[in-house]
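Researcher: I'd like a structural prediction for the single chain below. Treat it as a standalone chain; there are no partners to consider.
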Amino acid sequence: MEKKFRRGDVVWAKVRGFPWWPAIVKSINTKIIKKEKEQEEIRHTTLLVYFIGDNSHSELPINKVEKFNHKYEEFSKTKKKTLLNSIKLAKKIMSSDILFEKHLNELNKIEKVKKLRLNAKSESIVNKN
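Model: Treating it as a single chain, here is the predicted structure.
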C-alpha cells in the first residue's frame, strides 16, 4: 500500500540516530526513473519535513515518514522532555489551522534567514579571494 502525504501534513519522521519525531511536510518530490531495457518506471518519492520544536529540516525517503495519528500510540511513548513538548505542539497544530499557518510562516522565515546567511558567507569568501 502506497503512503499518501500532502504539504502541511503533521507526520512522524525518522532520521538515523534519532527517535521518530513530529514534523510537518513542507514539500513532496517525486522522481520517475525509467529502466530502458524493461520499459518500466520507478517512482522515488522524498519528503522535505520540518521537525516540530527543533527548527531543523531534512529530506527523507517516504519509508522514513508515517502519518502522525496512525503511529501516535507507538511513537509517543517517551520520557524525553524535548520530544514530549514537540508532540504536544504537533497535537496543537493538528487541532488549529491558524496555529498551523503561523508555524509554517515561522518555518519559512527561518529558511529565508538561513539562505541569507549562507549567501553572505559565500560572498564573504569570494570577496576575500
